[in-house]
Amino acid sequence: MSTPSAPAISSPPAVASSAPTPASARAPPSGPAPPTLRDLPLARQASFWGFAILFVLAIAFYLWWGLSFGVWIDNGVYAVVATLAGFGLAGMWLCLPTPHRPIPSDR
């Protein structure tokens, strides 16, 4: 006795769509990979993490002051937190690696 074979299932024909291809399906851009924090010299990495500590210190100081004294609205605390957070964020931003920019072609 032979067993009947199942009919071959074919996939539907491809339909051309006018929708744009999503960015994740496109080929990656050619050129060097963008630099990361690990590509920086050790001194610049240390500076970045030092500024990150300033930012974390600002948040920790605000939480400590509010929990210790029960005062969450205080101009003096805001001044200290804004100074620490501002220098922390600005310093981290300045220490980040600069991305490679393509050289514009003359047209």
Describe this structure in words.
Helices cover 46% and strands 0% of the residues. Helix 1 packs antiparallel against helix 2. The chain has a domain at 35-95. With 107 residues, it is an all-alpha fold.
Oligomer: single chain
What is the arithmetic mean of pLDDT? 83
Largest sheet: none
CA radius of gyration: 28 Å
Label the structural class. Answer: mainly alpha
Low-confidence stretches: none
**SSE ordering:** HH
What is the 3D form?
Answer: elongated
State the total count of DSSP E strands.
Answer: 0
Provide the β-strand percentage band: under 5%
Distance between the termini: 75 Å
- How helical, in percent, are the residues? 40-55%
Number of helices, counting only DSSP H or I runs of 4 residues or more: 2
Quick structural summary:
The protein has helices spanning 42-69, 75-95.
List the helices and strands and how they pair.
Elements lengths: L41 H28 L5 H21 L12
Helix pairs in contact: 1-2
Q: Descriptors for this entry?
A:
single chain, mainly alpha, 2 helices
